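User: Continuing from earlier, I have the next pair ready.

Assistant: Great, send them over.

User: Here they are, in order.

Assistant: Folding the first of the pair now:
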Amino acid sequence: MMRDATPEQCRQLLEFIDQPIFALNLEGEYVILNAAAAAVRGRTRQDQLGSPYSRFVRNPEVADAMVARARAGEVVTEKIEVALPNGQAQVIVDRLGPWRDDDGQVVAIWGSAMDASVYETLGEVQQESQVLRELDEARKNLLSIVSHELRTPLASIQGYASTYLLYEDRLEPEERRDFVRRIVDSTLQLEELVDNLLTASRIEHGTLEMSLRPAQLSKIVFEAIAEAHQRWDSEQIEFTGPERCELVLDPRRIRQVIHNLLDNAKKYGGDGPIEVVLEDQEQKVWVTVRDHGPGFAEGYADRLFERFYRGRSEFTAKGTGLGLWITRAIVEAHGGRIVAASPGDGGALFTFSLPRGLQAPEA
């Protein structure tokens, strides 16, 4: 290893490296630097050897602090303003770190330098690469989740339909109705999943459009609750609000919002009741969906609306992590906003607003 080499061997090796590399003693004085390290500071090697690291810089306090931190065992990176012989300054990025012996004791300080613009470009590339890696991982996870979510209703449809065909003559009328109802429920579940995936694709590509027209929001909420009752049988959903509440919106998209919020309440609320409240105010209309489950920890309200984020629940872990992200995008496309809260008395509530100022396009 390089730390086992003699100083002369280190010097010879470093001359073949284009990257500016140097070494300091524990007092912060140059003891080794290659030609590239000397050139980046605009001085000869003889001028710098034996001189303090902070001598030829315009921000010596930063340089001294870097030496102290490296001597204490840290690896530190900072921008340094090098004072060139012609009176001008050049900004470079230096990295210092501890040079340890076989016993782990810091015996010197190693250093390297890089042009500031190159460093910033590298940082941007690394950041973009990290984002791409995270997105690729999220897509892989989503593909796995979606594959599972699609199989569940498809298996149900196939199972009940096959059984119905095989034993149709033996089934009682009530059993037949139950089989058909379960097939319809699974079909609705599959339709909602596909609808969410298509909506997510449109949001991602900036092609989500609203078909605005005057509609009764109360009716949309009633219909979504009725469909939820049909799918969940015994689920209690309590509604409070006016019987009529007309405003301009996209009925299909707002129904999708209500479905997603009800599904989320069912998923994380356990067996407790779900409360839906519609408030018709002068400038805005507010809709709140609340469950009575364990709620969520403080500081997680914004994360719930992130794409692919899936909360933890003792009741279920199903879902694609897209529902609330889609819900927020649809609400904001209407000029509204949505917030989440976990009240002190338990549960989680989601409240979204819709403005009354939207105009339907002329025919």
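And the other member of the pair:
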Amino acid sequence: GNTGIDALHLALKSGSGEEQPVERPPTVRFRLLMTMHRRESWGDAIAAACRAACAVVERNPDVEIVFATHLNPLVQAEAERAFTGVERIRLVPALDYASFARLLSSADVVLSDSGGIHEEALSLGKPLLLLRDVTEWPGALATGAVRLVGTAEERVVAESEAVLDSLRSGDPWPRHDDPLADGHAAERLVADLAARLVADGAA
């Protein structure tokens, strides 16, 4: 199982979190959630992906991008340089997990280089464009719900618009039903451990 997915669903059910939900403006039809933080993304990769984000909102007036910043000051500085004053791109501060889970749940599309968001977006059925050149989880790509797009500006714009066009036309995004990432892994672990303890006691 995957206890990380248990935590995601528990956070969403609890309604807890330090930050209030990020409200969607009435003119916005689609929300893209964007995060970047990995070391290999620092510098040119983040800059290129941020330029692509600016192009996407400029070309698609029904779209907003919410960039969830990271605690790393290098990432924060790059995002502020790219996005300050750009219409329909909002920077939100680094969030506690429950607040981020709500933000992720509110998104229509996710752009991220995060390994954990691979799993979380997949569990919630969110289209994920992976801003990396490689992934340690090829099974995610096999589902069709996660696309490996890199950080080249033109590619990120093209892939983002392809997903948006698909959503506008009503085409269903591939869903991935993983019985071991259903939010009940901890329950199975407890039951298994209890059964082993009982068996050991009987022996």
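Worth noting for the second one:
The beta strands are 30-35, 63-68, 89-92, 109-112, 128-130, 146-148. The chain is about 50% helix and 15% strand.
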